[in-house]
Amino acid sequence: CKVLVISKFSYISVLTVDFCKWLDIWAAVSLYKQEAYVYFSLLLLFLLGSSMLVQVYSWLWYRYDDFKMKTKIEKKPSQCQLKLLHVFQLGIFFRLFHDDICAFIEPQRADAESVAKFLRQDLRILRFIETFSESAPQLALMLTIILDKCRLDPVTGTVCYSAIGSTLSIASFLTTYDHSMRTFLPEKEKHHMISLVFYFIWNLVLISSRIAALALFASVLPCFIFAHFICSWLVLFFFAWRSKTSFMDDPRGEWLYRTTVGLIWYFNWFSVAKGMRIRSVLYHAYILIDICILCGLWCWKMSTDPPDFVTHPLTTAACVVAVYVLGLLFKVIYYTFFHPNLDKDKLKGATITEEQPEDEERSHSVPTRPLKATDNKRMRKLAENFFYSQTDLKSYICESKFNLKSN
Length: 407
Description:
The protein is globular and about 65 Å long. It has helices spanning about 1-35, 35-65, 70-75, 80-85, 90-105, 110-150, 155-180, 195-220, 220-240, 250-265, 275-305, 315-335, 360, 375-385, 390-405. About 75% of the residues lie in helices and about 0% in strands. The protein is mostly helical. It is built from 15 helices and no strands. The chain has a domain at about 345-405. Its main location: membrane. It is found in: Cell membrane; Membrane.
């Protein structure tokens, strides 16, 4: 019964994704008909670029798992056919399809619930990537179009619907990501609804303020937003590299992941490695300063060439900055009262089967907890970074000192 209930939520998620895709297509067609070719090209770039990125991750994960399929549906296509599905941007839909099939067709399996959970967690990570590679930049684009048009016409009407769809997409991700992380917690550490509410609020508030600042800046200096993105991404990519992430199973995949982290950090923060608490503070300080600069440049442009629809640009800019500060306040409250800080050994997962030599325990590449076939190592890695504790932070510092001495 649990698997069937899970599948119902998965089915609703599929319908939500399909609804947003139809809104995206509708917006793209409307922009093309109104000869807004620049906006049409950007929207197409976000849609196709995000789809290609998600397909690459999906294919790499199949390869990392040695193509060990866990359901009958997965075993149907050959490796060549599976690769073609990803080339034609259908890999994610294949995952969605066999996730539902696993719940409905194979519930009699002893490990049906574990297999469904494994498949669903991969889908949620892919959804996480898609949120910040498609929905977030698309929402910024839609808001820029609305600010640029400043009137109600077929384009702005369609854009408003697409913006609502992007907002719903981001909101649905925020409601499921924290829940996915907390599935690794012991039963006594399970969260209450109020913690989920605080997690949802501070993330949505921070993302909204960031996207609003980007949209305001892009509406008056559209050419400079590309330079801003490239420069910011290079800085964030550098810090992602310095964080020494270990999410993927090969060096090429890890570089792709660090590239993606730089893109995600452009909109919002998430922890990618141990000992990220100080870097989180530095990140939010950097983004707050960046938002102040973007809003300041927008105010300057409004004062030199004031439009009819903005009467108090300074108040608008101050509100955007204040909303980000408010989001930081909610985040501090969440991490102070609601976020559990646990050692990674206390998270749910496979138990230790044999002791490892001391030198191996110091090695970053050797996991301390071997995972079962139905345990999702990718989601567990995210959970370990999400639920960092003071013990993990001290271990990270000791490990860094050991590496410096050895070098």
